[in-house]
């Protein structure tokens, strides 16, 4: 007998239309290793890139960019990198949570656990990685380092992205 998660994954869409947002005061399209990594991993895994942008680490700009992506037809998931720490300029967490309808606390919890186990150690507690939904869109917010992005994408997001969308699209019974 199949477990329900396995069954749900088998019914999930194989390709998800994604918007990638890098939050940084200094990165450019040429120097944005984390944003490039997200885009490459999405495309290597059969997902579609609908848009990509870099936005300054400013609460209002981040919030406006996320909101705009969440209202675009054709975008199913929004993936952010950067601005998840605790420095005074880090405001991605606040911008994302101000728009979320539902929080997926397990994403942040698992990300921090995996980071702790890999090589970050107790500094993993400084990450405010978060995921949830904004309407019918999935949103995942990751730290700005390429190592953190690789971990989040390969261990958490890519294995479950289709399943997350299946659950979001599920009709009430």
UniProtKB/TrEMBL annotation:
Keywords from the UniProt entry: Molybdenum cofactor biosynthesis
Record protein name field: Molybdenum cofactor biosynthesis protein B
Function: May be involved in the biosynthesis of molybdopterin.
GO terms classed as biological process: Mo-molybdopterin cofactor biosynthetic process
Originating organism: Paenibacillus spiritus
Pathway where this protein functions: Cofactor biosynthesis; molybdopterin biosynthesis
Annotated MoaB/Mog domain residues: 19-164
UniProt xrefs under InterPro entries: MoaB, MoaB/Mog-like_dom_sf, MoaB/Mog_dom, MoCF_biosynth_CS
Domain of life: Bacteria
Cellular-component GO terms for this entry: cytosol
Family as reported in the entry's similarity comment: Belongs to the MoaB/Mog family.
């Amino acid at each position: 007998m199949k477990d329900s998660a396995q069954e749900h994954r088998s019914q999930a869409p194989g390709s998800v239309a994604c918007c990638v947002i890098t939050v940084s005061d200094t990165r450019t399209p040429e120097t944005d290793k984390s944003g490039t990594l997200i885009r490459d991993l999405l495309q290597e895994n059969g997902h579609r890139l609908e848009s990509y942008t870099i936005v300054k680490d400013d609460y209002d700009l981040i919030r406006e960019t996320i909101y705009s992506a969440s209202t675009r037809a054709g975008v199913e998931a929004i993936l952010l990198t950067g601005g998840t720490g605790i420095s005074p300029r880090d405001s991605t967490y606040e911008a994302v949570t101000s728009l979320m309808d539902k929080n997926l606390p397990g994403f942040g919890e698992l990300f921090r656990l995996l980071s702790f186990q890999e090589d970050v150690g107790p500094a993993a507690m400084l990450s405010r990685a978060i995921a949830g939904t904004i309407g019918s869109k999935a949103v995942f917010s990751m730290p700005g380092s390429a190592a953190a992005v690789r971990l989040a994408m390969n261990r958490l997001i890519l294995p479950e992205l289709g399943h997350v969308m299946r659950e979001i699209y599920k009709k009430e019974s």
